[in-house]
Amino acid sequence: MAQYKDSSVSSVKEEIIEQYQMKALIGHGTYGQVKQAYHRLTDTKVAVKILRKVKSSELRIKNEVDIFKTVRHKHIIRLYQVIEKEESVYLIMELATRGHLLAWIRKSSRLCEDEARRLFTQTVSAVHYLHQNKIAHRDLKPNNILLDNEGNIKVSDFGLSTRVTWGQLVTHACGAVLFRPPEMFLLKCHDGCKVDVWSLGILLYFIITGKFPFEGRDAIQVRSQVLKGRYGIPYHLSAKGQNLLCQLLSVDPNQRPNTEQIMEHPWLTPFKECLVCANEPWPNKLDPIILRVMCDMGYHPCDIQRSIKDRTFNEAMGTYLLVKEKQNQTDSSINLKKVPPTVPPCPTPAELSNFRVPIKRRASLPARLTSTLSPEFQSLSVDKQLPHKRGLSATLPAIPLCFLQRDHSASIDPGQDSVVSLGCSFFISSSERFPPEQPHDETITSKVKKRSRWRRVASRIATIFHRICFCMRAPK
C-alpha cells in the first residue's frame, strides 16, 4: 500500500489535474502512488493518491473509494474530492505534514509511555469508529498511521478494507507479513475486526520499543514466532500497559478484546477524553461566509448545496471542504473587500428630473470592510488555465453575497460577468465590460460624463419643443 517517504519530497515533473497542481512524489505502494499538490483556487496543500485503472484492480478501487466516502472522524485522514479519468482515479486527501509513524519513531528510537499512550488512544478511537460502522481496516501498520501538523494520529489507506457484519468471517489473507495474526498464517477463516486488534498490539509494541515483536529473515521464521506467540515484554512499560499488550497479542482470536473493551482498559484512562471522539457530522447548512467566497470563484449556490447534500465529492464539494478547512485553520478570519458600486442603467428623458448624477470617485482602491474572512482569501482569483464557471442566475432568491477584489483580466464566464450585491444580480454585457488597462473608477467617471452630456442634449430638445408648442396659435 502507499507509503510516505522518510526523506524530503522528491521532485517530479509538475502536472495539473483540474484545479490541482502536482508538486512532488511523497509516497508509493503496490497499487498506486501519492503526490503532494495544492489547490489553485485556495492555495491549500493536499495529498493526491493516484490509483491506476487495470482490470484486476477495478473492484478494489471501487471498494476503497466507497469506504473512504463514508468515513468521517477526527483521527481518520479526510477525503475532499474524487476525480475519475480514463486511466486513473485521483483521491484528493488531507495532507499529513509530519509523515507516517514508522519514520517518526525510527528517528526518535522510541517514545515515552505517556506519548505512546496518547497516540495509541487516538488510533484506538479511529479503529473503534470503523468497527462501529462495520468496516475492518485489515492493514493497520505504522506506514498507514500518519501525523498531522499538531502531532495527532490520522489513520489512512483503505485499499484492503472491507465491510463486514457482526461475526462474519473473511477468507482472503492480506496485509504485511509482520502484522498478520496466527489465523492468517494457518489459512483459516478469520474475523476482520480481530485482525485489527492483533495489528493494534503490534503497533503498541512498536511505539513502546521501536521494534516489532515478531521478526525474522523471511516469512517462515516470522510465521513460526507468531504461532508460538513468544516475544519480549518491554521492561520499561508499566504493569497496566503490559497487561493490555498481552491481551491484544493473544494467539487465540477469541481471547482478544474488542475495541470497546480496549477503550475501557485502565491503561488508557489518562487520555480517555481522546476516546470520546464522536462522528464528525457532514455539513447540512452552507456557511454563508464560505458561500460568498465560492460564489466569487464562479460556483452556483444550488450546485454547492446539492453536492454537499448528496456527498458527491465533486469539484464543488471538494472546494467547499477545502475552504472550510482553511477557515478553521485561520480561526474564521478571512477579509472581504468592498465591491465598487454598480453603474445604474441609462435613464430615459422622462426620468431625467428624478435622475441623480453619481458622485465622482478617485481612481483609488476600494475601502476594506471590517470583516470575518482570512487574509489568504484577499488574493483569490480565478486562474486563466481553469475551466470557466457559470455566473449566478438572476432568478435566484436574494442572498446577501459579496465579491472579493480580484484581477479584472480574469473572468468567470466569457459571455458575461455577474456582479452580486445586496441580493440583486446585475449583468454587464460584453460590450460594456471594463477594459483591463482602464481603472474601474475612471470607467465609471467616463460614463457619468457621457450621461451628463446626454442630459444637456435632452434638456435642449425639451426646451425647443416647449417653445414650438407655445408659438402655435389655437384654432378659432
TrEMBL record:
Q: Which SUPFAM superfamilies match?
A: Protein kinase-like (PK-like)
* The keyword Membrane is annotated on this UniProt entry: no
Molecular function in Gene Ontology: ATP binding; protein serine/threonine kinase activity
User: Which residues does the record give as ATP binding sites?
Assistant: K49
| InterPro entries listed in its UniProt record | Kinase-like_dom_sf, Prot_kinase_dom, Protein_kinase_ATP_BS, Ser/Thr_kinase_AS
User: What biological processes does GO assign it?
Assistant: intracellular signal transduction
Query: What positions does the domain Protein kinase occupy?
Result: 20-268
Write down the top EC class of this protein. transferase
GO cellular component labels: cytoplasm
Q: What is its EC number?
A: 2.7.11.1
CDD domains from the xrefs?
Answer: STKc_AMPK-like, UBA_MARK_Par1
**Family, as annotated:** Belongs to the protein kinase superfamily. CAMK Ser/Thr protein kinase family. Smok subfamily.
Q: What does this protein do?
A: May play a role in sperm motility, especially in the regulation of flagellar function.
Record protein name field:
non-specific serine/threonine protein kinase
Organism name: Dipodomys ordii
Q: What is the lineage of its organism?
A: Eukaryota, Metazoa, Chordata, Craniata, Vertebrata
